[in-house]
Amino acid sequence: MQQKKLAFIGAGNMTRSIISGLIQSGYDKTRILASNPSMPKLEALSEEFGIQVTQSNDEACQFAEAIVLAVKPQIMADMLGALTANNDLEGKLFLSIAAGLPVARLQTMLGGEYPIIRIMPNTPSLIGKGMSGLYADDTVDRDDKDYADSVMGAVGETVWVDREDGINGVIAAAGSSPAYFFLFLQAMEEEAVSMGFDKSVARLMVQQAMLGAAEMVCHNPEIELSQLRSHVTSKGGTTAAAVNTLIEEGLQETVSKAMRAAVARAEEMATQF
Ligand SMILES: NC(=O)c1ccc[n+]([C@@H]2O[C@H](COP(=O)([O-])OP(=O)(O)OC[C@H]3O[C@@H](n4cnc5c(N)ncnc54)[C@H](OP(=O)(O)O)[C@@H]3O)[C@@H](O)[C@H]2O)c1
């Protein structure tokens, strides 16, 4: 992995998880720095990972060859406005993980066409099982794309999209989707409780079933999902009774409607900040 001097502006949850992954992957901790307005998160990062920390975004900017923009979208304009006013940004690579902020909008905030890679990570990145989508236009060179890929590869899998609106598809399929699975499990847990199981037993059963199913999917990439399902569904059996009910009740249509709603909301958010 290239070892650019890497600064994180905003030391929240996502920064913490990416730094954790990078350190575990052998990234030189002296080449990582994080900035944040308040000290407690910085102190925790410094103590746990031995990285450099600062309350000054300007210091972070001056240190860095690559900068991860990891603040909430609604404060990005003010933060970048100050950064642009106080620093020479020439030659720096920007990696933005902020949801809903297109490259062109970020370039306007930065006041120039600096190389920007947009990244959409998801929450399981916090435990190293993330799925990130990445996008960069043609002005970003191969080395920088490879670098961004290896940074996010430290917390999970990566996919690249050719067009920026593909990021909204990543949001629907991966960014927001852990919550779909949580909802499905919740419904199953509630039904198991109503069948008389203790809540802890109900939860154990459904979570272990999902973990096993997910591992089977991951270990058998050559087997279609429909085939994995048919392998465990005997005709006329209990699984068939349940699965047919889900299909008849419109599960597939509901899922596709939900994913389209996520895309629509992402498009709407892109116009807000
Ligand atoms: N978490 C996810 O699963 C996820 C997924 C996809 C994308 N993202 C994106 O990742 C970004 C960070 O998310 P997060 O979950 O890590 O949020 P977070 O935990 O709220 O972290 C944001 C951090 O930014 C700091 N901050 C506020 N103003 C700042 C400034 N002017 N300069 C520097 N730092 C400043 C905050 O500090 P204080 O707390 O001290 O104010 C906070 O530590 C967001 O844009 C979000 O859209 C997150």
Blueprint (SSEs and pairs):
Blueprint: E1 6-9, H1 13-24, E2 32-35, H2 39-49, E3 52-54, H3 57-63, E4 66-69, H4 73-86, E5 93-96, H5 103-110, E6 116-120, E7 130-135, H6 142-153, E8 156-160, H7 166-175, H8 177-194, H9 199-219, H10 225-231, H11 238-248, H12 251-269
Parallel strand pairs: 1-2, 1-4, 2-3, 4-5, 5-6, 7-8
Antiparallel strand pairs: 6-7
NADP nicotinamide-adenine-dinucleotide phosphate is lined by residues 9-15, 35-38, 41, 57, 70-73, 75, 79, 97-99, 120-123, 175.
Dominant shape: elongated
The structural class is alpha/beta
Name the bound molecules: NADP nicotinamide-adenine-dinucleotide phosphate
Q: Report the CATH C-level class of the largest domain.
A: Alpha Beta
Taking pLDDT < 50 over at least 5 consecutive residues as the criterion, the unreliable ranges are none
Strand order of the largest sheet: 3-2-1-4-5-6-7-8
What name is given to the CATH topology of the largest domain?
Rossmann fold
Strand content: 5-15%
Tally of structural domains: 2
Largest sheet: 8 strands, mixed
Number of helices: 12
Helix content: 40-55%
Number of strands: 8
Mean pLDDT: 96
Span between N and C termini?
34 Å
CATH architecture of the largest domain: 3-Layer(aba) Sandwich
Q: Can you identify the CATH superfamily of the largest domain?
A: NAD(P)-binding Rossmann-like Domain
Radius of gyration: 22 Å
**Helix-strand string:** EHEHEHEHEHEEHEHHHHHH
